[in-house]
Amino acid sequence: MSIYDFEVNTIEGEQTTLQPYKDKVLLIVNTASGCGLTPHYKGLQALYETYKDQGLVVLGFPSNQFAGQEPGTEAEIKEFCELNYQVTFPLFAKIDVKGEHAHPLFVHLVDHTPAPYHTGDIEWNFVKFLVDREGNVIKQYSARTEPEAIEADIKDLL
């Protein structure tokens, strides 16, 4: 199954796939609004603004699996991100990113990250996956990896 075939729901509740992002470089991130790492939104937005015209898309997937740090509704999450971090990159509905009910997209991302760039299971909010224009997972970055630290890898794929 291609990464573009996974069904997801937008933060507005519309069902879609990742097909609209085919031929783009993707940075897929599990996010949370009440986390010590929430300021990563600022860096993610900066990367998106800098490189979107060259083909980068950041995709944010809120998850409430880590210490209940994303308890809000999709509308609350969207408003928080827009007001506090001026987020304009695509956000999606809350999902589980690990465990028994993990969304198939995140199972795929973890399972298809090549060695030595596979950091293991999703350990916390803001784990980042870099995907090339052909839909291949290139690298997995730990939650604590600052978005700016990924810039050189993004530029290489663009």
Mind explaining what this structure looks like?
This protein is α+β, with helices and mostly antiparallel strands. The chain has one domain: Glutaredoxin, CATH 3.40.30. The protein is 25% helix and 18% strand. A four-stranded mixed β-sheet has the order 4-3-5-6, with helices on one face. A hairpin with a 5-residue loop joins strand 5 and strand 6. It starts with 6 loop residues before the first strand and ends with a helix.
CATH hierarchy, class: Alpha Beta
Read across the widest sheet, the strand sequence of neighbours is 4-3-5-6
Largest sheet features: 4 strands, mixed
Question: How does the helix and strand content classify structurally?
Answer: alpha+beta
If you compute it from the alpha carbons, what radius of gyration comes out, rounded to the nearest whole angstrom? 14 Å
Topology as a string of helices (H) and strands (E): EEEHEHHEEH
Q: Which overall shape is indicated by the principal axes computed on the Cα atoms? A: globular
Number of strands: 6
- The third-level CATH topology is Glutaredoxin
What share of the residues lie within helices?
10-25%
CATH architecture: 3-Layer(aba) Sandwich
Distance between the termini: 24 Å
Strand content: 15-25%
Number of contiguous helices: 4
CATH homologous group name:
Glutaredoxin
Output mean pLDDT.
96
List keywords for this structure.
158 residues; alpha+beta; Glutaredoxin; two-stranded antiparallel ribbon; 4 helices
